[in-house]
């Protein structure tokens, strides 16, 4: 069984500082780490890997992302692939998805792809679904648990307000995992040292048979911002067949008929009870007994 794990190199939120002079994020002080949800995906892939299986990690990013892939190799991944090109800048999720899909095809499509559901920098959560669209595979997002059962994956996913849903998906498939399901195992020092000398496969656009035009998407241009148009109010028109005084009364009440009540403040209790019964009979709430 071949398992692919998509990893992302993200800034550590605890190291983000704002320059007091410029008001911009100080990029020189930011440290980078593996996306927490991707850590869970990698650990679960290593646990799921059978004795004859493989786990390959993929990442889209510049040369600094090699540190991320080396950590994954030290943790137990069998191979690592980094996708990047000098013509690329900070990629959007759709561009990242195209590059990942092309790299997966070049490497021979796996049986299962695990992704972190959300990243701590963008947090759009769209990569698993977009990747499934490009590979034409089924996808399940917001996964909290999964179990392999004879070529099928039984999954549990999170719904709104703490609810859970269970289902099955046939392999090959893509799973978008929630953050914090499990913690990535601690790599030993010998494995960390060995991972620094392991080969990391690097793909550019030429190796992926892509061109810059394949990654170019026209951006939306904002031409004008207009406030929402208020809804037209329906004006009440009095009944022209009524007298002047009745029309004035309708205008004063905006056509709403007031509810008139009657207070019984005189007569004996028996007389008041008879008046209530008479009212109920007149309004049809009671039927006259024969």
From TrEMBL:
One of its GO terms (molecular function) is electron transfer activity. Keywords: Electron transport, Transport. It comes from the Bacteria. SUPFAM superfamilies: Adenine nucleotide alpha hydrolases-like. InterPro entries: ETF_a/b_N (IPR014730), ETF_b (IPR012255), Rossmann-like_a/b/a_fold (IPR014729). Coiled coil: none annotated. It holds the Pfam family ETF. Residues 22-212 form the Electron transfer flavoprotein alpha/beta-subunit N-terminal domain. PANTHER family: ELECTRON TRANSFER FLAVOPROTEIN BETA-SUBUNIT (PTHR21294). This is Electron transfer flavoprotein alpha/beta-subunit N-terminal domain-containing protein.
